[in-house]
Please model this.
Amino acid sequence: MKMLAINCGSSSVKFKLFQVDNGTYRVLAAGLVEKIAEESSLVHMQWQGGVTEQNNRVASHREALEIIEMMLLDTKIVPDFSQLDVIVHRVVHGGEKFYQPVVINDEVTQTIKSLTPLAPLHNPFNLEGIMVLREKAPQVKQVAIFDTAFHQTMPEVSYLYPLPDDFYRSKNVRRYGFHGISHSYLAKTASHFLDKPLDTLHIVSLHLGNGASATAVKNGRSIDTSMGMTPLEGLVMGTRCGDVDPGILIYLEREYDLDSEKIDEILNAQSGLRGICGENDMREILKRIKKGDKKAKLAFDIFCNRIKKYIGAYAALLGRLDVLVFSGGIGAGSPDVRERVCEGLGLLGIQLDLDVNKRLNADIGCIDDGSKDVRVLTVATDEELEMVKQAYMVQ
Model:
C-alpha cells in the first residue's frame, strides 16, 4: 500500500510517500516545495535513487502539487496521484468538530472551510491541497488529520478561558492547542523507546522550533498545552511573543494608534526571539552569544526560562513527571537549550548527563544521567509518519 502524507503550509508543501506493508512503514520519497508565490521557489525531493532539486518560481499550491506529481512520475515511484492507495492531509484547525482522523467528503471539506476564522493563515491552504488532490485523484481515499485533535482530551478546567461564558458558547473562544500530531508521536515514541505502557506514563513533551509548544500528557492523553485558541499563546517562539499581559495590547492600541491588523503583525511576525535580539534562528543566536552579544544572550535566556516555567507547571498538574521529551529543530538540535532548560530542575527529578547531551547524534536518545527519577529524551519528531499511521487505522 502506498500512502502519501501532504502538509500544505501558507507558502510551502511538504510531503512524504510511504510503502506500508504488514505494519511496517518505509519511506519511498520525501520533499518540500517552499517559497511558493515568491520570486524564486525551492523544490527538493529525496528518494532511494538520489536527490531532485529545482529552483524555479512556483506560483501556487496547485502548481506545487503538480510538480510533486511530476517528480514522482519522473522517478517512476508512482505513475500519478490516482495510483496511490491513500492520501493523508494535515489540517491545522479542527475546532471541536474533529477529535480524530476522518475520511474526507464534501461535508468534511465544508466544515474545514467553516473553521477558517479560527485559523485564517492555515486552514485555507490545507483546504486548497485537499481540493486539488480530490480533483486529481477522486477515487483515492483521502484522510484529514487535525493538529488540534490530540488536545481534544483536555478537560474544561484546561481549555476554558476566564472570560464571559458567551464568548465560548457563541464564538468558540477556548484553548484548542496545536502541534498535536507531533505531541502524539512524541508520547508514543517515548513509550516505545522506554518499553513502558503509554497509559502508565506522565510526560511533558516539548516541540521547539520556530513555532514552539509544551504539552502535559497523562496516561497517553493531553490534559493541557501551551498554545491556545491560536498558535500565538504559550512559549517564546521565533517571531511570536507567546504569553504576554493582554493589557499590553490595549496600551499599544492607545499609545501608538495601532489597528488590530498591525498589532497582529507585531505579535506574530516581529516578536519572540526576533523582537528581543533581531534574529529568530537559534543557531545564529548561539553564534552571536559566543561572540559576547548581550541581546542574543538575553533572548536565549528568556526563551529557556519560559520553557522551564511550563515544565514546572505541568509537572504540578500531572502530579508526577516520568518523562521529559525534547523535539523540534531546536529541542532535538540544540544541546545548549536542553542544558539551560534543565539546569536547576533537580527538584523535579531531572538531571542531565552533560557529556551525553552534547554528543548525542541520533533520532532518539536518553540524555539524563540515571541518578534521578525522570527520563529525559530527545526525539526527532516525524509528523508525516504519525499522520499515515493514524490514517491507516481509518476505515
Notes: The chain is about 40% helix and 20% strand. The chain has two domains: 2-146, 195-383. The first strand starts at residue 2 and ends at 8. The chain has a mean pLDDT of 96.
